[in-house]
């Protein structure tokens, strides 16, 4: 999933002088995570010692001749920078779905997002079923104030149809300078109608943590992304919850439709609920010296803006209170790191559907001229040693967003569906896993087709249009099941299905 400012990025220290780790997702239900370190500012020179050879004279000749032929013979004039950027994009895009070349404007947006804000209309969007779907409007944003809802489909951005645009292109068109306007045409499936919204872009300070008390004695915390304010904000809200409800009986941590963010911040969130020094995630880089095991330790979630440990005086009850973690296919990247850590350590029960399945880490860094590069450099592993690549976090308690007899959503796009996705284990093809997944998707589609055919035979009154759940609000079926589990009440589990 991605916000209208693009995927979430960030950086961590420790891999090299300026190397930034990003565990992320571009393009599909996009989201990203970074650790505080980056690609080296001065890349090592090609040599046998560095493990790679310089370009040969023939390779340089091929590139130069192609450049010159395009400049001389192409039907129109071509900008030199555009040609160079196109060459780098093609080279990087052939690697895997998450490596990317970022032109100066895109890299500047990445840096802006690292500072906790963005300029746009305030929509968290993703590509689903071939459409640009709204997962949630950012509270108090222009989009939220205008009445755009979760589940709406953006069909046109100004004069451009959204169908056929990449997620990055759609995001780029919705962004812009504060005070400028953008016109969105939105289709609302639940009401079978289209609406036009003229939105004035604004600088939006994203609040990633929200909290509710759905019933006395039980708390609900939703985290929509991870940046440097997430851990302090979470700590403050948990302290307030402990004061309001000192005899807290249970807590629901909602990670649905969370596209990721900064790795350290996810480590910090896990540290709020786990004992000191507990392993959270192991990052295994191609260069062993850059590998790192993240634990419950201030050094592993500290951010430059912190003047003190935000979790230092967190009430001890949050290390032991019964917990349920909610996930779905749009739970991506470091969101999966957090869910897996709480699951592997038996600290919480995971409820919902399988997460996206991205088990790799990217490093980001600047290039000359203001551009940037995001490159897959490592894999990460859960405390029990699992790779989540192409698999995701499987829920302990499978529950749909809607009751099973109303759930007919199409299979979600996952990491394993992306072109050039890496295998779950380096050097080992995932042929059997891919075949099993493809068969499961076909079975799911056939089941939906049969279900909808039956509804059609029964007439219009039998047809349903599922309105996406408003997370944390009345009518949130998955949340109601989480509260049932915490209160030892009967559960309604989903029909067995794998996508």
UniProtKB/TrEMBL annotation:
Pfam families: CtpB_N-like (PF22694), PDZ_6 (PF17820), Peptidase_S41 (PF03572). Keywords: Hydrolase, Protease, Serine protease. Residues 389-410, 452-475 are annotated as: Disordered. Residues 399-410 have a biased composition (Basic and acidic residues). SUPFAM superfamilies: ClpP/crotonase, PDZ domain-like. SMART domains: PDZ, TSPc. Residues 452-468 have a biased composition (Polar residues). InterPro entries: ClpP/crotonase-like_dom_sf (IPR029045), CtpA/B_N (IPR055210), PDZ (IPR001478), PDZ_6 (IPR041489), PDZ_sf (IPR036034), Peptidase_S41A (IPR004447), Tail-specific_protease (IPR005151). Residues 107-175 form the PDZ domain. It comes from the Bacteria. Belongs to the peptidase S41A family. This is S41 family peptidase. It comes from Paraburkholderia kururiensis.
């Amino acid at each position: 999933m991605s916000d209208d400012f693009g995927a979430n990025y960030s950086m961590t220290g420790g891999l090299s002088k300026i190397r930034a780790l990003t565990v992320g997702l571009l393009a599909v239900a996009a989201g990203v995570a970074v650790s505080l370190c980056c690609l080296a500012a001065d890349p090592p020179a090609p040599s046998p010692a560095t493990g790679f050879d310089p370009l040969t004279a023939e390779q340089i000749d091929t590139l130069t001749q192609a450049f010159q032929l395009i400049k001389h013979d192409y039907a129109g004039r071509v900008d030199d920078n555009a040609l160079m950027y196109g060459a780098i994009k093609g080279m990087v895009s052939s690697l895997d779905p998450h490596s990317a070349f970022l032109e100066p404007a895109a890299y500047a947006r990445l840096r802006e997002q690292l500072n906790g804000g963005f300029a746009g209309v305030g929509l968290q969007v993703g590509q689903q079923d071939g459409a640009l779907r709204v997962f949630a409007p950012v509270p108090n944003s222009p989009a939220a104030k205008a009445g755009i809802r979760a589940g709406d489909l953006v069909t046109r951005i100004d004069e451009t149809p959204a169908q056929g645009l990449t997620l990055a292109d759609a995001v780029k068109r919705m962004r812009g300078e504060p005070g400028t306007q953008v016109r969105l045409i939105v289709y609302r499936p639940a009401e079978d109608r289209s609406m036009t919204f003229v939105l004035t872009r604004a600088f939006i300070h994203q609040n990633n943590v929200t909290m509710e008390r759905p019933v006395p004695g039980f708390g609900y915390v939703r985290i929509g992304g991870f940046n440097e304010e997430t851990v302090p904000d979470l700590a403050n809200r948990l302290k307030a919850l402990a004061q309001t409800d000192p005899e807290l009986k249970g807590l629901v941590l909602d990670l649905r439709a969370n596209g990721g963010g900064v790795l350290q911040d996810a480590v910090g969130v896990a540290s709020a609920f786990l004992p000191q020094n507990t392993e959270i995630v192991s990052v295994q880089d191609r260069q062993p010296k850059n590998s790192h095991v993240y634990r419950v330790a201030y050094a592993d979630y500290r951010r430059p803006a912190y003047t003190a440990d935000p979790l230092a005086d967190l009430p001890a009850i949050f290390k032991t209170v019964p917990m349920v973690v909610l996930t779905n296919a749009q739970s991506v990247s470091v969101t999966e790191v957090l869910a897996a850590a709480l699951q592997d350590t038996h600290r919480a029960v995971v409820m919902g559907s399988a997460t996206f399945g991205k088990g790799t880490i990217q490093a980001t860094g600047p290039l000359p001229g203001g551009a940037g590069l995001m490159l897959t450099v490592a894999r990460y592993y859960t405390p029990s040693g699992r790779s989540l690549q192409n698999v995701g976090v499987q829920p302990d308690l499978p529950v749909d967003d809607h009751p099973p007899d109303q759930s007919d959503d199409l299979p979600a796009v996952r990491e394993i569906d992306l072109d050039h996705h890496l295998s779950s284990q380096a050097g080992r093809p995932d042929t059997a896993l891919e075949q099993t997944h493809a068969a499961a998707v076909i079975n799911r589609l056939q089941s939906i087709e049969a279900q909808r055919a039956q509804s059609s035979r029964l007439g219009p009154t039998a047809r349903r249009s599922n309105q996406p759940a408003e997370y944390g609000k009345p009518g949130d079926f998955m949340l109601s099941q989480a509260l049932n589990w915490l209160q030892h009440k009967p559960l309604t589990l989903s029909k067995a299905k794998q996508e």
